[in-house]
Amino acid sequence: MLELKNISKAYPGVQALSRVSLHIQAGEIHAICGENGAGKSTLMNIIAGNIAPDEGELIWEGNPIQPASFHAAAALGIAIVYQERSLVDELSVAENIYVGKPPLTPWGLIDVKRLTQQTRLLLQGLGLDTIDPQSLVGSLSPAQKQMVEIAKALAANPRLLILDEPTSSIGEKESRVLFQMLQQLKQAGTAIIYISHRMAEIFQIADRITVLKDGVGQGTFDAAELNPARLIQLMVGRTLQETHFASYAQPDVYLQIHQLSGSGFQDISLHLHKGEIFALAGLVGAGRTELALALFGDTPIVSGTVQLNGREIRFRHPEEAIAQGIAYVPEDRKSAGVFPERSITENVQATLLSRSFWLDASASAAATHFCEKLNIKTPSIQQKAGLLSGGNQQKVVLAKWLATQPGLLIIDEPTHGVDVGAKAEIYQILKDLTQQGLSILLISSELPEVLLLADRIGVLRQGRLVKILDKSEASESLILSLASGTYAPKSDYND
Amino acid sequence: MTKQKPNLNHLLQDRVLSLSLTIALLAVVLALVYPQQFATWDNFSQVMLNLSIDTIVAVGMMVLMIGGMFDLSVGSVVAFSGGMAGYLMYYHQVPVPLAIAIGMGGAILIGLTNGWLITRIGINPMIQTLAMMGIVRGFALMLSGAGLQNFPWEFIVVGQSKLLGLQMPVWYMLFIVVGMSFLVQRTTFFRRYYFIGGNERAARLSGIQVERMKIWAFVISAFLAGIAGILLSSRLGAALSTSGRGLELRVITAVILGGASLSGGQGKIMGAFLGALFMAIINNALIIARVSGYWQEVILGVILVLAVAIDQLLLRRVHRK
C-alpha cells in the first residue's frame, strides 16, 4: 500500500533519519519501535505530510507521491493521531471531530443535527457512549480526550492510520476497546502504523515490527519471530561505550528528599551524595522534569521535605534556589534555556544579575573563562547565542549556571539536539565537575548516557519512583522494562 | 577572538546609529532647502519643546517594550496627573509641591494597578491598559472638566522658564533621557528587562523575578507619564481633559521607530528619543512646506511601515546565511 524508499532527513546537527525504507501493507498492524530520538516521530511526520524528506521517495499504491502538505496526505486517506493533542478545548466534541469537513445543509451551513448523530455513532463504535457529542473537549478527562483524538482520525475513514503512543494516557479498559477497534479496522483492510513504548501491547496487536535506531532502520520482522528481550536488544543494540568514567561520589549526603509530592510526581524519596551523579530515568511524562522544577522552586511542593547540606529548604521562586547553590539546565533549550538575541556574555550574566546593583565586568570575565574551559566555538563572546550550533548553545547555558558556582546541578536532557562530538565533551565536563565536588541530578531519556554517567539510577514511572538501581546492576533492558511497566516484581506490583 | 568589522549590515541593524544618520541627513537637507525657516535657533527650540512631552512618555514605553509589554493608558495618565494637580490648586488652594506630589502619586497608583492586574490576575496587557485608558480619561474629565486655568506662579514656572535659551521641559527631557539611558545600560535592575523580553521562561528559570519586574515597568512608565502631564499643564498654564489624546499611539510609533519590537528584548532609551525627534522633524518640515495636516498622519504611517519592513527584510537576510 505504502512504500518508503531510502528516506533521509537531517536537522542542524542531527541526522534524524538516514536511508530508512519501510513497506506497509493493507490490513496489517505495523509497529515502529525505537528509543527516544530514534527518528520515529520524524518518520511519521514525513508520511503524514508535515515534513518533507531531504532524500528518498514515497510510493502510494504504485505511484510516487510528494505529500508535501498535510492536506495532500489526508486526501490520500492518511490520518495521524499525535502524541500531543490537536484538539481545541473550547469547542464541542462533535465540532472537534469534524473540524475538517462537517456535514452541511443544502444551504452550505453546518448541519448540527447530522453532526451530532454522526459523532454519536462514531463514539459508540469506540465504546464511548458516555461522552455527549455536545460537551466541550475541555471538560473531558485526559483519557477521554485521547479517545476523541482517535475518533477524529477515524472520522475521515482513513486507509492508513498512524497512532503515536495512543495508550500513554489512557487506562486498561480504553486500551482494550481501542485494540478491538484496531482489529476491526484491520479486517476491513485499513493499514495501521502503531508506535508504542509498551512491549506487551506491541506483541499483543502487531503483525510486523520495524525497528529504528539512531535514525537507521534495523529491519522489519514478523511479530512472531521476536520476543520482548530480543526487540529491546535490537532497539538498544549498540556496542558498549568504550569510555568508562570513575565515580567521584563522596560519603557525605548533599541532597535529601523525603516523601516529596507535587504536581506530576508522588511520594519520592532519594538522596544524593557530594560529587555523585544520580540519574532519573523513565518514559516521557513519568514526572522527572516535574520533580526537577519543584526542587528548583518553579512549581510548588505539595508535601514532603527537602534537605540541602543538612538544612531543610523550601523555595517559592528559582531565585531562592539559585541563592542556595542549585542550578537547573532545562530540557527545552530554545524556549527555556538560552536568550537567543543576547550575546554569550549576557547569557552568562542572566544568573548573576541579583548579585550587584551596577553591571560589572564579572560576567564578561566568566564568559571568557567558560568559553575556554567548555571549549565553546565562537568568533567572539559578543556573538549572539542564537547563532551558535545546538551543542555550543547548550554549553552557553551550562556556562550560565557554572558561573553561579552551584553545589547541585540539575540537568535535564543535556544532549538533546547536540551532535556526537559535543556530546562526548559535555560528558567529560560533567564528570570533571563531579570531581570538584559538584552533585548532579541527571534527567535523560538516552539510556546509554544514563549508564555511562550515572553512579546510581532512579527509575520513575507514572510519577512514582519504581526502583533505585546501582550502576553495577543497571542495564538498558532492565531500566526500559522498569520504566514501561513490563518488569513487575511482586513487592511493588501496583497496576 | 576577533572583533567583527562594521559594515553596512551592522549599520542598518543598529537602529540608534542608522536613525541618527537619517536624522542628520534630513536636517542637512532641510537646512539647505529652507535656510530661513528650518535652520534657526527659534525653530530648533520649538521642535525640542514640542517633542519633550512625547519623549518623556516614550522613555517609559521603551522600558516596557524592552520587557515585551506596552501600555495604552499613558495618554490618559498625562491628562490625569495634570488634572489632579490643577484641581487641587484651583479648587482647594493646595500648595503647589503637594498638588504635584498627589498628581504623581495618582499616576504611580495607576501604574501599580495595571501591573498588578496584568501579572497577578493574568489580564492581557492590551485589554488591561485599554480599559485603564478609558477609566483614567474619565477621571481626568471629572477633575478638569472644560479646563482649569489661573494656576499659582510657582506652578507655571516649572514648565515656562528658560535656561540657556531652551524651555525647561527640554532640559527635563534631556535629563530623563540621559539618566535613564545610563541606568538601563549600567544597572542590573534595568538589564533584566532585556532578558524578560528576550525569553520570559528562561528569565524566570535564571532567577529573575519576572512578575515583580513587570509591575515595576508599569509603575515607571506611569510615573514618567505623570511627570509629562504635570509639565504639559504647567507649560500650557492650563489643565485640559483632552491632553495626551492619541499620545499613546504616537509614542508607540516613536519607540518602534527607535528600535523596539513588539515581541520585546530589543531597543535602547536613546532610540526612544531619536524616534520622537525624527517624528518631530518630519512634522516640522511638513508645516514649513505648508503640507496639509492630513498628510502628516499619512506620511508618518508610511514611514513606520517602511521602518519595520526594512527590519524584517534584514532579519530574513541574516537568517538565510
Molecular structure report:
Chain A is built from 17 helices and 20 strands. In chain A, helix 13 (362-373) crosses helix 14 (390-402). Chain A folds into two domains: 2-236, Rossmann fold (3-Layer(aba) Sandwich); 277-299 and 316-492, Rossmann fold (3-Layer(aba) Sandwich). Helix content of chain A is 33%, strand content 25%. The model of chain A is unreliable at 490-495 (pLDDT under 50). By secondary structure, chain B is mainly α. Chain B has one domain (8-320): Orthogonal Bundle (ABC transporter involved in vitamin B12 uptake, BtuC). Chain B has 14 helices and two strands. Chain B has a two-stranded antiparallel sheet with strand order 1-2. In chain B, a hairpin with a 2-residue loop joins strand 1 and strand 2 (166-167). The A-B interface holds A 296, 298, 317-319, 321-323, 328, 330, 335-342, 346, 349-359, 378-382, 400 and B 1-4, 185-189, 191-192, 194-195, 198-199, 201-209, 265-266.
Secondary-structure map with pairings?
The complex is a heterodimer of chains A (495) and B (321).
Chain A lengths: L1 E10 L2 E11 L4 E5 L6 H8 L7 E6 L2 E3 L4 H7 L1 E4 L11 H5 L14 H14 L16 H14 L4 E5 L7 H16 L3 E5 L3 H7 L2 E6 L2 E7 L5 H9 L16 E10 L2 E9 L3 E6 L5 H8 L5 E8 L2 E3 L4 H6 L2 E4 L3 H5 L6 H6 L12 H12 L16 H13 L5 E5 L7 H16 L3 E5 L3 H7 L2 E6 L2 E7 L5 H9 L11
Parallel strand pairs in A: 3-8, 3-9, 6-7, 7-8, 13-18, 13-19, 16-17, 17-18
Antiparallel strand pairs in A: 1-2, 1-4, 4-5, 9-10, 11-12, 11-14, 14-15, 19-20
Chain B lengths: L7 H6 L1 H19 L7 H26 L7 H19 L3 H26 L3 H20 L8 H8 L1 E2 L2 E2 H19 L1 H11 L1 H6 L4 H27 L10 H11 L11 H20 L4 H28 L1
Antiparallel strand pairs in B: 1-2
What's the CATH H-level homologous superfamily of the largest domain in chain A? P-loop containing nucleotide triphosphate hydrolases
Beta content of chain B comes to under 5%
- The rounded Rg of chain A comes to 25 Å
Q: What is the CATH C level class of the largest domain in chain A, in words?
A: Alpha Beta
Chain-averaged pLDDT of chain B = 89
Rounded mean pLDDT score of chain A: 84
Largest sheet of chain A: 6 strands, mixed
| Uncertain stretches of 5 or more adjacent residues of chain A | 490-495
Oligomeric status: heterodimer
The count of domains of chain B is 1
In the sheet with the most strands of chain A, the strands line up as 6-7-8-3-9-10
Q: Give the CA-CA distance, first to last residue of chain B.
A: 21 Å
- For the record, the count of structural domains of chain A works out to 2
What strand order characterises the main sheet of chain B? 1-2
Structural class of chain A: alpha/beta
Query: What share of the residues of chain B lie within helices?
Result: over 70%
Structural class of chain B: mainly alpha
Kindly report the greatest chain-chain contact and the residue count on each side.
A-B, 36 and 26 residues
Proportion of beta-strand residues of chain A: 25-35%
Q: Roughly what percent helix of chain A?
A: 25-40%
Shape of chain B: globular
